[in-house]
Structure formats: C-alpha cells, structure tokens
Amino acid sequence: MTSNPYLILLADDDLSDQEIFKNALKSAKFKSKVNILNNGVELINYLNSKNNLPDVIFLDINMPLKNGLECLREIRSEERFKELIIVMFSNTTSKQKIIDSFENGANVYLSKSHSKEKLHKAIQKIIMYTHLYKTPPFHIDNFIMKLD
C-alpha cells in the first residue's frame, strides 16, 4: 500500500449507514479518504468526471434514482472501469440480488452491520486483500463476506 490515502467511494443514500461507515474507517490502520455519494446518479457522474479513480467503491443496492445493480452494470460496461474493486454493501436479503451482483461483476458482497467493530474488520480485510478480488477464478461461495 502506498503512502497516499486510499481513495474510497461510498454510494449510499442512508445517512446513518454513511456515519457508521465513516466511523468504522477512523480507526483503520491505513490512511483513507472517503467520498460519499447519495445515489447512483451521483456515483456515475463522479466516475465520469474524474481522472483519478477510486481504489474501491462500496455500493448500496437499494438507492433512489439509480440503484446499485444499475450502477454496477453501467460501470462494468466501461472499459476504463473494468479494474475497479466494487463491494456491494447492502442490507438486502434477496438471494437473487446477491447473485445478480456477482454475475454483473461485483468483487465482494458485504452485508451492512451496525457494529462499528465488525464493519471496521470487514473493511480493513477488503482493503488489505483487494488484489485477491481482481484475479479469477471467482466463485459465489467466496463472494459473500461474512461478518464474524
């Protein structure tokens, strides 16, 4: 990891989830800069307007204007975004939405947690092992990160 802050995007419309996410990163063992976007339209506009791409995107599935699955499909359709690490970060229990996330190119699925400690550990694990999420073979059993 470089000395530059790790650039993280969080696309999530829930203000309390945004706060939990930011608080979980405060005690991280790495420098990070978090940009929060409130919906899918803001995310796509952000990505299209920046040359400096994020290191990882945490993407909620259920958002207004453009949901996370729509964003995921749009991001993966663009060649310049193919290498982005995308973590679906959601409360959804829909097995079909989780499978759709996997099939449309998300790297990891992480259930939201209101435990700052569990979320902190999961985020740190994702950041520390991002290289593993870029290289196939991918399998649905390794796609869903369990919060222990």
Features:
alpha/beta; Rossmann fold; 6-stranded parallel sheet; 19% strand
Please identify the oligomeric state: single chain
For the biggest sheet, the summary is: 6 strands, parallel
Number of domains: 1
Cross-sheet strand order for the largest sheet? 2-1-3-4-5-6
Shape: globular
Helical percentage: 25-40%
In terms of DSSP E residues, the strand content is 15-25%
Q: What Rg do the Cα atoms give?
A: 14 Å
Number of helical elements: 6
At the fourth CATH level, what is the homologous superfamily? Response regulator
CATH topology: Rossmann fold
Structural class: alpha/beta
Gap between N and C termini: 25 Å
Overall pLDDT, averaged?
A: 81
Give the topology string: H per helix, E per strand. Answer: EHEHEHEHEHHE
Give a brief outline of the structure.
The protein is α/β, with parallel strands linked by helices and 148 residues long.
Describe the structure.
By secondary structure, the protein is of the alpha/beta class. It has a single domain, classed as Response regulator (Rossmann fold, 3-Layer(aba) Sandwich). Helix content is 39%, strand content 19%. Strands 2-1-3-4-5-6 form a six-stranded parallel sheet, with helices on both faces. β3, α3 and β4 form a beta-alpha-beta unit. α1 packs across α5 and α2 runs parallel beside α3. 30% of the residues are buried. The C terminus is likely disordered.
